[in-house]
């Protein structure tokens, strides 16, 4: 059996696991916080999106490297 | 079918980086350049229309402009920057509008290329943001003070500083604009690639592939393309929001005084 393709895609798949878990934790905490204290939603939203952006950056770096290193 | 397909159909060539290297339209001008100019014109014209005849009871355009400004002022600038947020709201609003229009170009028919999927564009934008928050920090604290609050967190033992200060320097002064631009670029790039994959895949299944089963199944690829177009619209708005949010938080951190 002959499989053609780039190993980088597998590497990117692996590197997306961590940020995936991280983004899940961030939004789980956000939902928890809003459920406990609905009036804090506005403040929590900003923090949640910053946390989301920071953990998502790792996945994006992986994606960019997957293309950049595909020599 | 056997009479039509004399040679086996060529395999599916998946879209890749080369689909983002658009040919120049005239001279060195490519599609992203034209889109940037168009986006700037759209933003300027819309905001001009919004404030043309300011009234106490706003009309439609004025209401839209004011709501947009209000979102940036109340939910981004006020939370992130703190006391002196008002002076930065125009910059943040313009940034938000410009990025939003450029991102939405990715799903507007006949344009259909998000400008920031071309890596040079977000780098330039992040450079602007970097210059702004560095300048704000130096103006507020002086050069030495700016470097001190960026690299010298208070109440840290000296042996931790040996590692911490280089890391803080790297992350606050060098890596911030890099991650800021890569985040926008990566999201737009990945989203556009995803749409290309579904639409080109559906086209291949319908027109090129030999198997009748693939032709029957091809509407599902187009359907997924449409679904992901809506998903992309959401991602594009969120990414514009995050870019502005992080810009505001960087300005907020360089303005913060030590406790």
Shape label of chain B: globular
Question: Based on helices, strands and strand pairing, what is the structural class of chain B?
Answer: mainly alpha
Oligomer: heterodimer
Please tally the β strands of chain A and state the result.
0
CA radius of gyration of chain B: 24 Å
Mean pLDDT of chain A: 85
The stretches of 5 or more residues of chain B where confidence is low (pLDDT under 50) are: 1-5
N/C terminus separation of chain A: 24 Å
What gross morphology of chain A would you assign? elongated
Number of domains of chain B: 1
Biggest beta sheet attributes of chain B: none
Beta fraction of the residues of chain A?
Answer: under 5%
Of all protein chain pairs, which has the greatest interface, and how many residues does each chain bring to it?
A-B, 15 and 20 residues
H/E element order of chain B: HHHHHH
Number of strands of chain B: 0
Which key features would you list for this structure?
heterodimer, A: 71 residues, mainly alpha, 80% helix, 0% strand, B: 259 residues, 6 helices, globular
Structure report:
The complex is a heterodimer of chains A (71) and B (259). By secondary structure, chain A is an all-alpha fold. Chain A contains three helices and no strands. In chain A, helix 1 runs antiparallel to helix 3. Chain A is elongated. The two termini of chain A are 24 Å apart. Chain B has one domain (29-255). By secondary structure, chain B is mainly alpha-helical. The A-B interface holds A 42-43, 45-46, 49-50, 52-53, 56-57, 60-61, 63-64, 67 and B 16-17, 75-76, 79-80, 179, 182-183, 185-187, 189-190, 238, 241-242, 245-246, 249.
């Amino acid at each position: 059996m002959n499989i053609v393709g780039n190993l980088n895609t597998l590497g990117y798949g692996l590197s997306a696991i961590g940020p995936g878990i991280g983004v899940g934790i961030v939004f789980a905490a956000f939902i928890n916080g809003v459920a406990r204290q609905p009036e804090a939603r506005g403040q929590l939203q900003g923090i949640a999106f910053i946390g989301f952006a920071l953990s998502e950056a790792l996945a994006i770096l992986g994606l960019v490297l997957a293309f950049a290193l595909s020599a | 079918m056997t009479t039509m397909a004399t040679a086996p159909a060529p395999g599916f060539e998946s879209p890749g980086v080369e689909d983002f290297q658009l040919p120049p339209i005239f001279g060195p001008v490519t599609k992203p350049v034209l889109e940037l100019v168009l986006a700037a014109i759209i933003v300027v014209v819309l905001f001009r229309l919004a404030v043309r005849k300011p009234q106490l009871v706003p009309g439609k355009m004025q209401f839209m402009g004011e709501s947009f400004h209000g979102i940036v002022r109340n939910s981004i600038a006020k939370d992130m920057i703190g006391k002196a947020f008002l002076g930065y709201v125009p910059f943040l609003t313009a940034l938000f509008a410009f990025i939003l229009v450029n991102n939405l170009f990715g799903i507007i028919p006949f344009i259909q290329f998000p400008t920031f999927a071309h890596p040079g564009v977000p780098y330039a934008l992040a450079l602007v943001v970097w210059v702004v928050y560095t300048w704000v920090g130096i103006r507020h604290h002086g050069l030495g003070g700016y470097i001190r609050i960026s690299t010298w967190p208070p109440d840290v033992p000296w042996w931790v500083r040996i590692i911490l200060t280089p890391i803080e320097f790297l992350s606050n002064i060098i890596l911030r604009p890099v991650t800021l631009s890569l985040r926008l670029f990566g999201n737009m790039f990945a989203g556009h690639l995803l749409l290309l994959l579904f639409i080109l895949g559906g086209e291949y299944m319908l027109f090129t592939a030999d198997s009748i089963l693939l032709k029957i199944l091809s509407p599902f690829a187009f359907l997924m393309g449409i679904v992901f177009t809506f998903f992309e619209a959401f991602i594009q708005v969120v990414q514009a929001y995050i870019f502005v949010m992080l810009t505001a938080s960087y300005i907020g951190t360089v303005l913060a005084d030590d406790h």
